[in-house]
Automatic annotation (TrEMBL):
Residues 204-688 form the LPS-assembly protein LptD central domain. Coiled coil: none annotated. This is LPS-assembly protein LptD. One of its GO terms (cellular component) is transporter complex. InterPro entries: LptD (IPR050218), LptD_2 (IPR045659). It comes from Pedobacter jejuensis.
Length: 885
């Protein structure tokens, strides 16, 4: 183990030395893209000179100050915003000298006597290449050779500056002492110094190359380098990040190889090794077919050893991720999507959320995956969709699979109406019919036996049919009526049989046997409903400032539904409970035999209830204020402020129920007071009172009896549960900016396909509102709060959750962010994540710190902003993986 540790340390030093090699592997050189300056403010001279060396080309030149000639007229001197055009060569400078005999053009700037700064540098362009800036240059108009000093040019996010370059006849470029950097300043903060090299159309060959930071040479160097200049993906080695972990030891992280397979598909294989024996492997691939589809695949495997030597917690974990999206225009009428996230139950904890230390990801208890396809059939009459889905519960290690589920829905039609009908519909032409078919294959079992015979035997298969029939009409202009019914039928290929055993004390137990075979059951119901709207409006307020009026809208709805008794054993679905002696088990409360459904727990158990005749009611309320707008100068502008949005009460009364005919009344609503503050609330009101009682001679406290609260002289029903939640952001501009960043990144992903970096950014944004660090937003603070109250037979429980996050600029270049919460039960803060960012112009520095908790850790990263040199970074990380054990 010590040998492995020393080996990794030695390799780390070597890799740091050769970092510069990879950083420049994607760079290329050409005189590229700068904004062309207009130097022709005053055109004092504009002369065309015929060049004897090339009769087809003419020299055009001008200057705003003066133009002078030598005695023999062979040399032209141009001063002040001079400009020369020769074929496809364009040159602007403060001073230009043209030697017609030798076909030499020389250009330079000048030193401003007041500021002592060098100004008026030559700006030149040749052919299809972009513009470039230089300190001075020589150009041979006959041979097109050029020699440039102190060049500054840009290409694909990289900048070349300083040194000398010489252009040959064959467009081969010789360079010397030139700096390459992603810093866009003429004097960059850092760069790769190329002592000498040759650049052609397809490659760059250099001599010694070393890194230079703030004009200070560093020992990170290469004796020579070869860089291909291909305008396509190129395979290459991915250098690792060396570091140390408090639990796993020294490590080399994310070393691997990148495969640029083609323009539509790539792959990346990476691995991480630790000196204590842990290792991780990752295979990721991105694919895209423009205007068709895009997606990515990620496979992760981790063999972890956390803890001190001799007491390690060894585990093997995996994760499979797949994301696929189809362009809506690729195949109109059909869609195909995939979002797969399958992992072992301890993957996120053992790997610290893939070394992101994201507390939300680490605390995730469930994972869902789905693969879905849909298609419109028969000109839009039918809609077919199918999906494979999985849901994992990490704490119980249970997994629920649907393999697959499908739906076939028919659009609602009016079978008795005519397409060529004229005039109003007759009553029978208002009848509508629909149809839907569902199929499902499900498995619910422990993940350890999923692919074993005992797990596969839990497969449940079934179909469900539904045929709704309805008719809508309006009565007395204000009352909307609807009536109809629904027939439901389920088909299952498994059913159950229960074996009961009774005991001398009157109790009993049961065992369930699953039987294979086709089993069907049908049910139906009839219903009718009526709804309307009632508008209430107050008179105008005169003494309440800008408040003008209060408006209240109520939407009452009453319905009646009837369904016969489908629990009768004679109908073949329900069975009577018979014990080991062949006797019926009697329910003491009803005096009738106990029954159970043979489709209980199946893919489609159906809805088979006793005879019901229920009256349902819903009352929806909306209240808003009419307020004069202070921004309106005419005095006639108003705006509406919603006070209550959708406060609804609902319940039902079963006329045929033997007891407790009235169900508990539930309510829910929301209020949006401002753009920043909105509240959601919900609860349940129980109309029945509690009384102390006895059961077989034993005293029982707080038993719910069939007696309404008003019968005991009470004014309000019991509040059995209540909850409300709200979130508030103090800086609306911050929320808006982050949403814009998210939408922009999401749009880029949809158009071009998702890279691993973009995928991680989207995931981070969904988990953490501070994922985007924007120095233009000086501060932000937001919090989310939820309160829940439950009262179960007199025993009340209260839970509170509070989460908060924010950021602020310490200076225009320093940003401080934090994310935490408060645990009211344990009366303490939840794990906090603190981050400090420093904008170093062309570099970024970030410090991430989790000061306490199971994943106490910190990391320091300094990296180049540009994606070209995104692997040029210095990192320091320390983690405490073993503290959660």
């Amino acid at each position: 183990m010590k040998l492995l540790s020393n080996s990794i340390l030695l390799i780390s030093v070597i890799l740091l030395t050769f970092y510069v090699g990879k950083a420049n592997a994607y760079s290329g050189f050409s005189l590229q893209q700068l904004v062309q300056q207009d130097t022709s403010k005053k055109d004092t001279t504009k002369i065309k000179v015929k060049n004897n060396s090339d009769l087809d080309k003419k020299i055009e030149y001008k200057a705003t100050d003066s133009v002078r000639f030598s005695k023999d007229k062979s040399i032209i001197y141009m001063y002040g915003n001079a400009r020369v055009i020769y074929g496809d060569f364009e040159l602007d400078a403060d001073y230009i000298r043209y030697d017609q005999k030798n076909n030499i053009i020389y250009a330079s700037g000048k030193t401003d006597p007041k500021t002592k700064r060098y100004v008026g540098r030559p700006i030149f362009k040749s052919g299809t290449e972009g513009s470039a800036v230089a300190d001075s240059l020589y150009y041979n108009s006959a041979t097109t050779r050029a020699k440039v000093y102190g060049v500054y040019s840009e290409q694909e996010g990289g900048f070349f500056s300083g040194g000398q370059s010489k252009k040959q006849v064959d467009n081969e470029l010789h360079i010397k002492n030139m700096m390459y950097s992603t810093c866009n300043l003429p004097h960059p903060h850092f760069g790769l110094m190329i002592s000498k090299g040759i650049a052609t159309e397809k490659q760059i060959i250099t001599g010694p190359v070393y890194m230079q930071i703030e004009d200070v040479p560093t020992p990170f160097a290469l004796p020579f380098a070869f860089f291909p200049k291909t305008n396509k993906r190129t395979s290459g080695i991915i250098l690792p990040t060396p570091g140390e972990d408090a639990s796993r030891g020294f490590f080399l992280q994310n070393a691997g190889y990148y495969l640029g397979l083609n323009d539509y598909w790539d792959a990346k294989l990476m691995g991480t090794i630790y000196t204590n024996g842990s290792y991780e492997a990752t295979l990721s691939s991105n694919y895209i077919k423009r205007y068709k589809f895009n997606g990515n695949i990620n496979l992760n495997y981790a063999n972890t050893k956390n803890g001190i030597q001799g007491q390690e917690n060894i585990g093997k974990n995996f994760r499979i991720g797949w994301s696929h999206s189809q362009n809506p225009n690729a195949s109109p009428g059909s869609t195909f999507t995939a979002s797969v996230n399958v992992s072992s139950s301890t993957y996120y904890q053992a790997t610290a959320a893939n070394t992101t230390y994201d507390q939300r990801a680490i605390a995730t208890n469930t994972s869902t995956s789905s693969i879905a396809y849909s298609k419109v059939l028969a000109g839009g009459l039918f809609n077919f969709s199918t999906a494979l889905s999985a849901q994992q519960t990490f704490s119980t290690r249970q997994i629920y699979l649907q393999l697959p589920q499908f739906n076939l829905n028919m659009s609602t039609i009016s079978p008795f109406d005519s397409k060529n009908r004229s005039g109003e519909q007759k009553w029978y032409q208002k009848i509508t019919v629909g149809y839907s078919l569902q199929g499902n294959n499900t498995i619910s079992t422990a993940d350890s036996v999923l692919f074993k015979p005992e797990g596969l035997r839990r497969l449940q298969t079934g179909f469900s049919h539904s045929i709704p029939i309805g008719m809508n009409f309006t009565l007395l202009k204000y009352l909307t009526f609807s009536m109809g019914g629904t027939y439901n039928e389920v088909w299952n290929f498994q059913s159950i049989n229960k074996r009961f055993t009774t005991f001398t004390d009157g109790t009993y137990t049961s065992r369930i046997d699953t039987l294979s075979g086709f089993k069907r059951g049908g049910s139906y119901n009839l219903s009718t409903s009526m709804s309307t709207k009632v508008y209430g409006k107050t008179r105008e307020f005169k003494n309440l400032g800008n408040i003008q009026q209060l408006r209240h809208v109520m939407t009452p709805s009453v319905s009646f539904s009837y369904s016969p008794d489908f629990t009768d054993p004679s109908k073949g679905i329900f069975k009577e409970a018979i014990d080991q002696n062949g006797k019926f088990i009697i329910n003491p409360s009803t005096g009738r035999p106990v029954t159970y459904s043979s489709l209980e727990g199946m893919a489609y158990p159906g809805s088979f209830s006793t005879e019901q005749a229920s009256i349902g009611f819903i009352l929806d309320n909306t209240t808003e204020l009419k307020v004069r707008s202070p921004k309106d100068t005419t005095g006639t502008g108003f705006r509406k402020i919603p006070i209550i949005q959708g406060l609804s009460f609902s319940g039902s009364y079963n006329l045929l129920a033997p007891s407790k005919k009235l169900t508990p009344i539930s309510f829910s609503g929301r209020s949006q007071f401002t753009d920043k503050l909105g509240i959601n609330y919900n609860g349940t009101l129980n109309p029945y009172v509690l009384r102390d009682s006895t059961n077989n001679g034993a005293f029982v406290q707080n038993v719910e009896i069939d007696r309404y609260f008003w019968q005991d002289g009470k004014y309000f029903p019991r509040l059995t549960n209540f909850g409300f939640s709200f979130d508030y952001g103090f800086n609306a501009a911050a929320v808006k900016k982050k949403n814009e960043n998210y939408d922009a990144l999401k749009g880029q992903v949809e158009k071009q396909g998702m890279t691993p970096l973009q995928s991680e950014q989207l995931n981070a944004i969904n988990r953490d509102p501070n994922a985007f660090v924007d120095f233009n937003i000086p501060w932000n603070f937001a919090f989310q709060y939820r309160f829940d109250y439950t009262n179960n037979l007199g025993v009340s429980t209260i839970t509170n959750t509070l989460n908060f996050n924010g950021d602020f600029n310490l200076t225009p270049k320093w940003k401080f962010t934090f994310n935490s919460g408060y645990d009211f039960k344990n009366q303490g803060l939840t794990p906090m994540n603190i981050a400090i960012y420093r904008d170093l112009h062309c570099w970024d520095m970030s410090v991430n710190w989790i000061p306490y908790g199971a994943y106490k850790s910190y990391s320091v990263t300094i990296k180049v902003k540009s994606s070209i040199l995104q692997d040029l970074k210095l990192s320091k990380r320390q983690g405490f993986y073993n503290t959660y054990q």
